Structure formats: C-alpha cells, structure tokens
Amino acid sequence: MKKIIITYWFFTGLLSVLMLLGSIPDIMSAPEAVALFNHLGYPAYLLPFIGIAKLLGVVAILTPGFRRIKEWAYAGFTFDLTGAMYSSLSVDGLTSGLMVFFVGYILIAGSYVFHHKKHKAVLLNHAKKLDTSEISGSLTN
Questions:
Q1: Is the dihedral of CA 89, 91, 92, 96 positive or negative?
Q2: CA distance 34 to 89
Q3: Residue of 32, 66, 70 lying closest to 51 (CA atoms)
Q4: Cα Rg, the chain, nearest whole Å
Q5: Is 140 strand, coil or helix?
Q6: Is 102 left (phi over 0), alpha (psi -120 to 50) or beta?
Q7: Residues of the chain where predicted confidence (pLDDT) is lower than 70
Q8: Residues 46, 48, 53, CA angle at the centre, nearest 5°?
C-alpha cells in the first residue's frame, strides 16, 4: 500500500504543479497567455474562466473525499489538455511541442489510476480489519 500512496502523490503532485502553474497566468490574463490565446484564435475573456476551472480542479484533486468531484476534475483536465493540443496542432501543425501534452496525459493518467488503486487498497484494508475483528470477537464469546 505504501508504494501505491507514494506513486499516487508523485503523479498527483506533479499534475497539480503543472495545472497550477498553467492556471495562474490564465487567471491574471498575463500578456503571454493573452498572446497565446490570440495566436490560437480564442477570445481573451475565456482565459480567466479556464484558469479558475484549472485552479478548482487542483483543489478538488488535493482535497480528501469528494470522489465524484475528483472524477469531474480529472475529466476537466483531460478536456483542457485535449483542447489545447488540438488547437496547437490545428494552428501550428506538428511543430507545436507535443511532448508537453504527452507528459500532461501521463500525469493525468498516473494520478487517476493510482487514485483508484489507493481507494481500493484502503477499502480492502478496512474490510480485512473488519473480518479480523469479527473473528476475534467470535472467539472470545
């Protein structure tokens, strides 16, 4: 279980940093972010919306509990990354540094998969504790 937790936090920490660093310039409508959006053909007023959505996704993934909201956050990160990759490929073609997108997909997938493995391990561990307490309780009666 310890390996699962360490791997989960490795992927989740890097994913959170990636999304957080991407959200701050968007929220602030930094000149570089506005220039990129203009280059891709999107209106600048969309930047703060996407930035706040990324920030809320990071909060959702890092907050314990709220399993359904975490699922939506992972989906939102995937949609955001897919939209960014599609836009970059459409405007710039294959010269648009695809490696960043693949790293992002790997981080999302790793965090998502190990989130579910961690949750399953916790449930199994809890079930084992219940089974052993029932057995020891029946032995003492």
A1: negative
A2: 18
A3: 32
A4: 20
A5: helix
A6: alpha
A7: 96, 131-141
A8: 95
Structure tokens that stand for 35 in this block: 């220039």
pLDDT of residue 87: 93
Q: What residue has token string 């699962």?
A: 4
Are 23 and 132 in contact, with CB atoms under 8 Å apart? no
Q: Is 30 left (phi over 0), alpha (psi -120 to 50) or beta?
A: beta
CA atoms of 60 and 78, how far apart (whole Å): 15
Number of alpha helices (DSSP H) and beta strands (DSSP E) in the chain: 5, 0
Sorted by where each begins, the domain ranges of the chain are 2-115
Q: Given this model, what pLDDT does residue 94 score? A: 80
| pTM for this prediction | 0.85
